[in-house]
Request: fold
Amino acid sequence: ARFPIVFARDRTAGIDRQVVSWFFVVQTQHGSPEWRTVGMSAEQFATARDDRPAPFSAQVAMVSGPAETIRVVVRMRWFDPSDPKTIQGRASHAVDWYRYPLADANEFCPGQIL
Reply:
């Protein structure tokens, strides 16, 4: 999965730094309307600034099993600068389209294909 672009929260007139993290969750709908988690990546931590995003890298998670529909949810967290163990904010992004590597450069496939 591609990494998100995550900046530190802008709190002062100067440059702010903050520990942020990201990971992704792979979920499936197999014969049910409910999403079930079938895999996830490791959580990656880095320091971001309010004028420069965290230097994250892409991650991989292996999953297996039947799936009618799958999705990837990217989760991001911001940690309190005075207490880096305390989560100060969080956001999620459900990816709805993936590029199929064997498809033509102008074709895109829905979320069922990773």
User: Anything to note?
Assistant: The beta strands are 17-29, 36-40, 44-49, 69-80, 83-95, 97-98, 109-110. The two ends are 9 Å apart (CA to CA).
